[in-house]
Design a protein that fits this description.
By secondary structure, the chain is mainly α. The protein contains 6 helices and 2 strands, in the order H-H-H-H-E-E-H-H. The N and C termini lie far apart (42 Å).
């Protein structure tokens, strides 16, 4: 039997990546009823605007690490769905400030509720120690992600 410490970090990273990707995919599938008309990129942008907004389209593109034309299309989708509002940017009349409106907040609330309920159902069968391990893993993943932010 190979000791855990003998497994290369790259193999551990691959295992972690696979688990994260599969879990994220399953969460998207679970929330599919609430995301009709929205792509994963649109949902991510909507959450970013809620968390950091109001923002200019360029600021959203920077945070989401996508090009400006991509965020322009994404914002068009969110606007057609009635989930965001645009207001003139007082600092730059050529731009707009984008914010999440009530419908957008409600859609995000429903999405999060479905995803949280799915995870809670899956976690019910875990031991207290396993749940604590997942909590610690979430903290570590957040710390890793925060370390890469612009």
């Amino acid at each position: 039997m190979i000791a855990k410490t003998d497994i290369p970090l790259s193999e551990r990273a691959a295992h972690l990546r696979t688990a994260i990707v599969r879990t994220a995919r399953r969460l998207r599938q679970e929330a599919a009823a609430e995301t009709s008309g929205l792509t994963p990129t649109s949902v991510a942008a909507l959450a970013t605007i809620e968390r950091h907004g109001p923002l200019t389209p360029s600021e959203i593109a920077d945070i989401e690490r996508v090009k400006r034309p991509t965020i322009t299309r994404t914002l068009g989708c969110l606007e057609r769905e009635g989930l965001i509002d645009r207001a003139p940017d007082p600092d730059d009349r050529r731009s707009a400030l984008v914010s999440v409106n009530g419908a957008g907040r409600e859609r995000l609330r429903r999405l999060r509720k479905r995803k949280n309920a799915y995870l809670a159902r899956r976690m019910r069968d875990l031991s207290d120690e396993e749940v604590e391990t997942l909590e610690r893993a979430a903290e570590i993943l957040e710390r890793m992600r925060e370390g890469e932010q612009l």
